[in-house]
Q: What sequence folds into this?
């Protein structure tokens, strides 16, 4: 199973942008709701886990080259944010899990994944 | 190469556009990946400070082979206590802006950390001028 599939299944993610946006490789993950903190600490290819769902999340994602955004707590972005994400090819995914639960699952996936390699 | 972008107060729709254009230009001219990353952080934080704290302003990038200068000039309230403003966690951002994840009081500290040189001048009720230099090199922060 591909890493994306594994993550989608484990976090019960729903992809809101088109499948074509899932083109980047996931290299790790970072969780944060303070944009300055994310900007300074997220690495290219990371999946960004956050509660935010407004369009500035897409701007920060584009600037930092994240592989995608996981919006937690069953929060859905508005139509406008989805349009910007589609245009910038940033995958937006939603989950019912909260930040802690989603990050825990990702942590587990990446510990297993790095052992396999 | 030099480019300047207008930045408007509380325009959260276009926020980050100037930093994004600077990023694209730096990638095009083949600046080091780490230089681009640091420039993006400095440019975005400077742009957001105009959006959130000032009335209007400009973000300028001057690209040289060995370095990059990022400048932010604004008309606005100015910064009464610069040392205080540079303290991590200090922020006067309004509540509705904090709810979006801005206003962590880490913008100026980030600008300082990710640039190699920084000058700031501010006049109360006039505005703020920020000048930073980022050297084009692969190593560290
Ligand atoms: N361009 C500016 N004009 C007026 N005040 C500013 C400006 N930039 C920063 N400040 C002041 O300095 C404080 C700290 O800035 P910063 O570290 O970027 O944190 P934040 O933007 O999250 O509040 C701001 O809350 C504001 O009071
Ligand atoms: Mg700031």
A:
């Amino acid at each position: 199973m591909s890493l994306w599939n594994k993550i989608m299944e484990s976090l019960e993610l729903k992809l809101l942008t088109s499948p074509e946006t899932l083109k980047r490789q996931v290299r790790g993950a970072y969780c944060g709701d303070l944009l300055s903190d994310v900007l300074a600490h997220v690495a290219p290819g990371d999946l960004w886990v956050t509660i935010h769902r407004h369009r500035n999340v897409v701007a920060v994602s584009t600037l930092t080259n994240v592989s995608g955004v996981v919006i937690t707590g069953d929060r859905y972005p508005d139509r406008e944010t989805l349009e910007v994400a589609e245009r910038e090819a940033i995958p937006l995914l939603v989950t019912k899990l909260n930040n802690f639960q989603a990050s825990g699952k990702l942590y587990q996936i990446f510990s297993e994944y790095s052992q396999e390699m | 190469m030099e480019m300047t972008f207008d930045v408007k107060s509380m325009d959260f729709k276009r926020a980050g556009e100037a930093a994004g254009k600077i990023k694209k230009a730096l990638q095009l001219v083949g600046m080091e990946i780490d230089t681009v990353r640091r420039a993006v952080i400095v440019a975005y934080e400077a742009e957001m400070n105009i959006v959130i704290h000032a009335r209007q302003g400009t973000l300028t990038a001057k690209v040289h082979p060995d370095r990059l200068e990022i400048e932010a000039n604004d008309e606005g309230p100015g910064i009464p206590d610069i040392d205080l403003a540079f303290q991590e966690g200090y922020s006067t951002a309004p509540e509705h802006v904090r709810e979006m994840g801005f206003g962590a009081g880490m913008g100026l500290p980030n600008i300082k950390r990710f640039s190699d040189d920084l000058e700031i001048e501010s006049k109360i009720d006039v505005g703020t001028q920020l000048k930073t230099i980022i050297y084009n090199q692969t190593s560290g922060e």
